[in-house]
Specification:
It is built from ten helices and 14 strands. The protein is α/β, with parallel strands linked by helices and 319 residues long. It has a single domain, classed as UDP-N-acetylmuramoyl-L-alanine:D-glutamate ligase. Strands 5-4-1-8-9-10-11-12-13-14 form a ten-stranded mixed β-sheet, with helices on both faces. A four-stranded mixed β-sheet has the order 3-2-6-7. A hairpin with a 5-residue loop joins strand 11 and strand 12. The N and C termini lie far apart (39 Å).
Amino acid sequence: MIVTLTANPSHDRTVALAGPLERGAVIRADSVISQAGGKGVNISRASVIAGIPSIAVLPAPPDDPFVHELLAAGIDCRPVPTDGALRVNITVSEPDGTTTKLNSPGPTVTPDVLAALADSLHRRATGAAWLVLAGSLPPGAPVGWYAELVAALRDTGTRIAVDTSDGPLRALVDGLDRAAPHLMKPNGEELASFTGGDPVLLESDPVAAARAATTLVERGVETVLATLGPHGAVLVNADGAWHATPPPTTVVSTVGAGDSSLFGYLLGDLREQGPDHRLALAVAYGSAAAGLPGTTIPQPHQVRPELVSVCRLDITPGG
């Protein structure tokens, strides 16, 4: 069982263009795809498609079409009632795979809603193998709320994964000495944001990215899965570091690819596979998602971990 929290869910709309995006021009779209989304929701969706039970916890009016869409898709959605319409995120996708995202802030949450979300996670942690805290925080949530949740949920005994960015990520890193999650999934830019490294270098150099991720492991994070876009991903834990190179992929949309990668790792862990196999599955899921339109989650038969090349890295000084 995987329980996910999507603190700031969104109606995701992807507009696919026939040519390059031109500012100020009138452009006709090839297609428009609309889907209930958010990082945690995407992971729950991938989990259900793969036959793994999942519960999606999120703030939303119980009768919102967002909730009904997830229930119709077979996702056990547990909304915490809140006021205000859910946000709409728009992605513009160009033929070469370039994506432009326009994300709205979302409705403001109250302390009561945050407390109810935390309580919902506590009550469902017992039967879960993983709790996943994913995405941005809505207006009204303290920037350190994820860090507070990790500290509060550690006593459940369930493993915790976090995928976030910007202020919530920095607050989480600042609090690692008090409460570290079992898994973190930054990308190259996010690694650079708290290590002071060059984001372009970290994304293009797996050894540099692995060394940056090691700083998190040294501070108590059990495993770091760092996605590096077209350069694959690295996995770092106390036993070492690995790099996976993705198979050739025609990129259609990168939206949600990182979420699919995180699920791939969790699936490998649930199957009790070794770190190299978990990493291969993570990269295979991310690559498959990048080759699909919008935030489409790949079906298991579309995921090809056997095409992913994995090698162990020597990240010692001078290695």
